[in-house]
What we know:
alpha/beta, Rossmann fold, N-(1-d-carboxylethyl)-l-norvaline Dehydrogenase, domain 2, 2 domains, 8-stranded mixed sheet, 8 strands, binds nicotinamide-adenine-dinucleotide
Amino acid sequence: MEKIGIIGAGAMGSSIAEVFAYNGYDVYLKDQNMDLVNRGISNIKRILTDFQSYVNTLPDKEIKRIEKLGIKLSDEQVNAVNKNLGGDIKIEEIISHIKPVDDYNKLNDADLVIEAVFEKQEIKNDLFKELSKHLNENTILASNTSSLSITEMASYYKKPENALITHFFNPPYTLPLVEIVPAIQSSGSTVDKAYNIISKMKNHRDHMVPVKAKERAGFIVNRILIQIINEAIKISEENIADEKSIDIAMKKGAGFPMGPFELGDYVGLDIVYDVLKTFNKVYGDKFLIPERLKNMVIAGYLGRKTGRGFYEYKK
Ligand SMILES: NC(=O)c1ccc[n+]([C@@H]2O[C@H](COP(=O)([O-])OP(=O)(O)OC[C@H]3O[C@@H](n4cnc5c(N)ncnc54)[C@H](O)[C@@H]3O)[C@@H](O)[C@H]2O)c1
């Protein structure tokens, strides 16, 4: 397994591409046009530059931590810490594994293709149909969907037994979980192959961790997290507490690394809204869409990516 195709070079597609390239795979990246592919590649460069800056801070942090314990390190020991924790991220080499493509035929010999296009069932169905003309008989075709039907997408693909969901989390270079969700048509070997690929990979912090789940909207993590964001919006609408206080409360009282409003802004409120609409269809009144969220999406207050969501961000 060497060649990966990624379709959709947005927030998720570009960072999934980065993780595969970081693991030495050749990654063929496709979007609606080359400008969007190039925007994705710029994002990958930024991810890698940020990673290098992060790695650069590690030795100093570790030395300070040890010195705080009252231990004075020798020059030799300081060098050893620098050598083990620091280091150069081979940015150019990793980027060289990303191959921009403008034609689906270039994905013909891909072993695994992952789509991360807009979260719309019809768009994904059409894509699975289109890819039936271009991919080979053995290619595994995976969707990164958060809430849509893979069984429906698979029914548009020429080899439905090769289709499944590999649901990466945002951002995949720091969050190692991938939910592996078979369609009703997926073969056991497709699931095993996807599981094995992911379990051998690393991201910037950890080994990647695949977890199998059945096809039901939201799988494991989002079904829980989206409800938390929704409930947080309701709490602020009821004037029980403001957003900042709710975020502080969940971080300091429940050990969350991010508050629900910070998380919503991070994920993108259009995504939260789309997922909620699907959950509302599937689970009914347990997932009612707050009017405020709908209005924020209409206004284009989508969170970090537009500079304004529940909070404001410098561009
Ligand atoms: N953002 C998240 O936190 C997150 C987390 C997990 C999963 N997902 C899922 O990942 C997928 C992508 O989400 P995103 O946040 O990266 O979206 P995004 O809007 O940032 O990127 C989507 C990209 O897909 C491209 N695209 C759309 N239709 C296309 C087509 N027919 N062919 C080729 N490219 C096409 C767009 O031009 C865009 O660049 C969605 O299914 C989403 O539900 C998102």
